Amino acid sequence: MIFSKIKKTCLTFLLVISIFPNYVLAYSDYIIPGGENIGIELNSEGVMIVGQYKVNNTYPAKDAGLRVGDIIIEVNGQAVTTINNLVININKAIKKRVILVI
User: Fold this and answer.
1) Taking 80 as the threshold, does the pLDDT of residue 31 lie above it?
2) Exposed (0-12), middle (13-18) or buried (19+): which is 56, by Cβ within 10 Å?
3) In the predicted model, is pLDDT for residue 86 greater than 80?
């Protein structure tokens, strides 16, 4: 009886291992880019507005005339190529008028 249970358990375990996909166990904490170009190029000129947020019950971007899909290419005469760059240029102009080129 005990041998039968052990045999059944072993067979079940082997069946589960053979069905369970091995690629599920292959993971990484990061991706290493490489390989060849597949036809997608990332050329960034500006930062696209993809959403608007409410601040103190108002929508400052909407009130300023900005819309989802607009691309900001300059802040106060400084070219914008990344979100970080956009934030830095806006923070430099705290309490001043910000001129955006879209």
Assistant:
1) no
2) exposed
3) yes
